[in-house]
Amino acid sequence: MHDILFREVLKNLPTFCLERWQSLHETKAEVLLSESGVHPLSISELEELGVDLKEISKLELSYGWTKGSPKLREHISSLYSNVIDEENIIVTNGSAEANLLSVLSLVSNGDVVIVDMPNYMQVYGLLKWVGARIIPVWRKPPKWDLPLEEFLNFIKDRSPKAIFVTDPNNPTGNHADKKVLSELAEEAVKNNITLVFDEVYWGLELDDPKASIIEVAGPYNVVSVSGLSKVYGLPGLRIGWVAGPKDLIDKAWRVKDYTSIAPSIISDYIASRVLEPEAVKKLKGRAKNIVSENINIARGILVDYKDVLEPYWPSAGAFLWARIPWSNDTLNVAQHLFKNHSILINPGECFELPGFVRIGIGQKPYYFKENFIKLMEALRAVHRTL
Ligand SMILES: Cc1ncc(COP(=O)(O)O)c(C=O)c1O
Question: Which residues form a coiled coil (predicted)?
Fold first, then answer.
């Protein structure tokens, strides 16, 4: 398994450990606690929430708008408090394609870039592939805050071309406050460095609402990647976007001619209605309710399992980052859980942090309670056998 998860796919392109781990196991596990978004909605659940999809059967299945329909791009731009307009948006196939387009449009062989760590390792892997010189800057326990001082020092000492941050952060569930974002943005703009923020968990804050980096700094030298997979519970639409300066969006559009041409017109149609302000409010509310309730459930259960798992309670996102105090070989622990208990969680090794695990907390609360107890019992059993 180690080799499957860590060998190169192509020259200089590492296996994307997290996605490979999930692709290989998620259809087989009975208890799925590996997801990072809230439980997906069905089309009829969307309609029950008031999303009007009546005209969908009349939709002509053309290529549609390769950059995303004007209506969808307008709705997306309004998420950013109208600091930008639809010309600042390109719609992509998931945030995954948005990250790909951002890296390919911005970074070339030999460029120095700073990367927020730990991280969802897609951008990191892509940066390696294009030959960037990567400076990893690590968040630290117990709070996993964005280490602003270190970022500022590296800006001064290494003059990077771009800085890639995932905030709210996957896997730690920490999100930065506005003051930190403002200071980082101010230095980046002053030094002509592009800030690229993966904000796919933006909108699922459990404490204070987080500002997007674009709301903080405007669209100059600042890029926000986001999408509908996590907070909105619609990963099957495969709708994401890049929001940023117009020249970058134009370049990303030209790169997209090579990757997927256009988003699916069916998804574009549904997304345009899902991003009406009323529906946005309801979907964000749904996500927050699910995660808040599950956190309460997990807190209650964990009282009896303090020896098994040490949680870092998230301030955003639909996942729980935790330490396994009795093992540093968490890939082995995760494999045991899968093989012997049919439970799937994500090992810290996929975030370059063995000794930790990421557990999904976005399931419907009724199932979550049952499954979280199963996980705790299984972890205790694995602890006994290792
Ligand atoms: C930080 C981050 N970015 C991007 C993605 C890709 O999401 P999608 O392509 O479904 O929008 C994920 C998925 O887990 C993620 O965690």
Answer: none
Task: Identify any residues that bridge with 8 across adjacent strands, giving them in sequence order.
Answer: 14
Q: Which two tokens stand for residue 8?
A: 């190169």
Third-level CATH fold of 2-42+280-385: Aspartate Aminotransferase, domain 1 (3.90.1150)
Ligand 1 neighbour 36 (Cβ under 6 A)? yes
CA angle in degrees (0–180, nearest 5) for 293-294-298:
125
From 101, 102, 116, 122, the mutation candidate for ligand 1 (largest count of ligand atoms within 8 A of CB) is: 122
Please tell me whether the overall predicted TM-score, pTM, comes out greater than 0.90 for this model.
yes
Q: One-letter amino acid identity for 355?
A: G
What does the block give as tokens for 46?
A: 């969307």
- Is 164's C-beta closer than 6 angstroms to any atom of ligand 1? no
- Return the CATH number of the domain spanning residue range 54-279: 3.40.640.10
Ligand 1, atom 7: closest residue by C-alpha: 95
Q: Which amino acid is at 46?
A: L
Going from the Cα of 58 to the center of ligand 1, the distance in angstroms, rounded, reads 31
Segments making up each domain of the chain, as ranges: 2-42+280-385, 54-279
